[in-house]
Structure formats: C-alpha cells, structure tokens
Specification:
The structure is a single chain. The protein is mostly helical. It contains 5 helices and no strands. The chain is 54% helix and 0% strand. The relative contact order is 0.09. It has helices spanning 12-22, 29-35, 42-54, 56-90, 94-109. It is elongated and about 55 Å long. The protein starts with 11 loop residues before the first helix and ends in a 42-residue tail after the last helix.
Length: 151
C-alpha cells in the first residue's frame, strides 16, 4: 500500500468512488458507486461498497480527501464571516446591514461555525429568531426609514 494518500489511487474507478464519496455523496456509498461508474445494484452494490471500505487504500484516500475538504471549509467559513462584517460595515441599506449582523450573531452564538447556523424555517425550541427592536423598514430594504413610523 502506498502511504502517500495525497496521490490518486491507481485504479481510476476506485479513485472516482473516493472523490465522489468524500464530496457530494458523503454518507451515500451506493450513490458514490453509481456516480463513479460502477453498474452494480441492490445487494451486490451494498456488498461491493463494503469491500471498498475494507480496502485500506480506499479508506485512507477517503480520509485524506475529507480532511482536504474540511480545510477548505474552514477557509470558506472565515471568508463568510469577513464578508458579513464587510456588509455590516459598508452596506448602503440598513436592512442589509442588520441582516448581516443577525447572521454573524447566529454564527458566533452557535460556536463560530457557519455549518451550525440555523436554517430559515427551523423553528425548534431554542432556535427562535432574535427580535430586532427599533427597525421599521421592510425586510427587502425597499425603503430606509430614518425616523420611527406611527400608525
């Protein structure tokens, strides 16, 4: 076995399986098999995926590819945080600045991870959206209100 997992596997289909599984088919080995060009179905596909996972080269390659993805993800998260700060600081519309601050606050309050931030529509207890007192503008930022509106 080649200990340098940064090199692609010699078997092109196994390499493609590793890449597919490590990226868009994470947790779906049968989908990764199909995407890699293996034409197995049903129990044969399940058994073959198990055999691939038992192969130390395949396992090591998947671990390496996932670690590379993780490193990219951390860089992406840093970039997202920097972008939100930039928007909050320089956006022309109050509504854009407020949305950037709310999203940044969610990320920071949930351990600093973009991946852990609540998705819209997730109304489970403990994930209530914070209220924004004093903001009178419509959510699309159509108008910027400088004074409070009265009914």
């Amino acid at each position: 076995m080649d200990n340098n997992t940064s090199r692609p596997l010699k078997n092109r289909r196994k390499e493609k399986f590793c890449r597919k599984y490590a990226e868009e088919f994470w947790g779906d080995p049968i989908g990764a098999l199909r995407a890699a060009g293996f034409l197995l179905k049903g129990e044969k596909a399940v058994n073959f995926a198990g055999m691939l996972f038992d192969d130390p080269e395949v396992r090591a390659r998947i671990v390496y590819l996932r670690s590379c993805r993780s490193e990219r993800s951390i860089a992406d998260e840093s970039w997202i945080k920097e972008l939100l700060v930039e928007i909050a600081t320089n956006a022309l519309k109050d509504s854009d600045r407020i949305r950037a601050l709310v999203n940044l606050a969610k990320i920071v309050s949930e351990g600093g991870s973009v991946r852990n931030s609540r998705k819209d529509g997730d109304h489970t207890p403990g994930n209530e959206q914070p209220l924004l007192p004093g903001f009178e503008g419509p959510p699309d930022g159509e108008k910027n209100y400088t004074t409070a509106q009265t009914d």
